[in-house]
Amino acid sequence: MSGERTPVEHLDVLVIGAGISGIGAGHYLKEHHPEKGFAILEARAASGGTWDLFRYPGIRSDSDLHTFGYEFKPWRDRQAIADADRILAYLREAIAEDDLEPHIRHHHRMVGASWSSEEARWLVDVERVDTGERVLLSAGWLFSAAGYYRYDEGYTPRFEGRERFGGTIVHPQHWPEDLEYAGKRVVVIGSGATAVTLVPAMAGTAWHVTMVQRTPTYVMPVPRGDALADLLRRVFGEERGYRLARRKNIWKGTAVWRFCRRFPKASRRLIRRVVASRLPEGYPVDEHFDPPYDPWDQRLCAAPDGDFFGAIRSGRASVVTDRISAFTERGLMLESGREIEADVIVTATGLNLQAFGGVELTVDGEPVRLADTVAYKGMMLSGVPNLAFAIGYTNASWTLKIGLLCEHFCRLLTHMDAHGYDTCRPEPADPDMATRPLLDFAAGYVRRAVDGLPRQGDRMPWLTSMSYHSDVTLLRVDDVADPELRFSRSAVSVRAVTT
């Protein structure tokens, strides 16, 4: 691909993914760089990413929309922990308000990209998913807004005897529209956010829903609405009220996370007390809701208005903590010897991580091995020019960080334009700098993929910050120029200036 010289369409920025991150990137590019040509590639037929892809019952956010929403677009709905259809409508409004639709190219999947230092451009191999046609695009910058998990498949561990089960098995990432579970026995395998969402959503229709988990998990009831945010909007108006509510929730979320990390024993006691108050008297709280890890070693699961615990109290749902020995013709056999009968089994067993959509990258003919790179400010890769990516927080609302990254990216473009640079490459001053995994998170989906992901360093700007307030300084306030960020002009640019 690097030897291709056929004239191709050239773009200043090529954004990968039309989900919440890609839509945000489009807004900031139009606001700060209206002169630049850009396109947003989306492999699917519709925009919205996660919020258009997942269709399982009850799908919702697990962060409040005053922080999960964009800083530039107020969230006006009364639901603070919002259902997917409301979030999708919000994202589609953002597309319409910024007139981004002409920039979005549906059914376009990036297959690979090759960087040429001589020409200071990426040559991008794109597949038209609907026709199978392959096209080439040229771009000065790639901005990966594809998230970090695979859209085409979820994670399902191998279960002995799965083929024997006589009922229906479904993964939440591929929920069939015609799945009928009314009056049936449903088993949900897993205990993450998806499982905690599915249980109460299905319990109202199914005969009974049983959540089977290997180890206890933290589940916290949270209000679905935000009364103070509603009051702030009424008193100060939509725009200012939203800004105040956003600040309040950023402070609240940060305070909760810091308290949990600093005082894990006190946090465990507090969470247990809250959970016990939502369950029937005498319920075995420790058996099911006292994990072997501390709060925020993994992300806490949220139960809006305590709906998960309400389903248990009603008798329509139950939790079993045990390991699965095998599938049987009638359901699941557990290691304890207990068999759970089921008509429908939902494998809410997690995600598969996939950095940069799984595309192949080369720089001047040399393949990029992600595990050999180090993340610069959590948004670029060492040794890889003109490539930015957007990965949000694991301990707070995803979009809080995306907005800061997009702002910083636009500031970087402004700096390069002002000084006549066309190439930007992060390079550690100390090539022997100690590194550790990019995501310091104990979730199973992270542990399974960590060896194939970029690394982070032991100091700034190579640390991947998970602090919004630190990132405000790093990404919004501090100068974009940095000794470990190398700017240059390509040979083509120099020739153009001298002729």
User: Uncertain runs with pLDDT below 50, 5 residues or more?
Assistant: 1-6
Q: Could you describe the largest sheet, including whether it forms a barrel?
A: 9 strands, mixed
User: Into which percentage range does the β-strand content fall?
Assistant: 15-25%
Average pLDDT confidence is 91
Rg:
24 Å
CATH homology-level superfamily of the largest domain: FAD/NAD(P)-binding domain
The level 1 CATH classification of the largest domain is Alpha Beta
End-to-end CA span? 29 Å
Number of domains: 2
Q: How many E-type strands?
A: 27
Structural notes for this entry:
The protein is α/β, with parallel strands linked by helices and 499 residues long. The chain has two domains: 289 residues, FAD/NAD(P)-binding domain, CATH 3.50.50.60; 127 residues, FAD/NAD(P)-binding domain, CATH 3.50.50. Helix content is 31%, strand content 24%. The chain contains 14 helices and 27 strands. The strands form eight sheets. Strands 1, 2, 3, 4, 5, 6, 19, 20 and 23 form a nine-stranded mixed sheet that branches. A hairpin with a 4-residue loop joins β15 and β16. α6 runs antiparallel to α7. The longest helix is centred in the middle third of the chain and has 25 residues. The N terminus is likely disordered.
Please sum up the structure shown.
With 499 residues, this protein is α/β, with parallel strands linked by helices. Helix content is 31%, strand content 24%. The protein contains 14 helices and 27 strands.
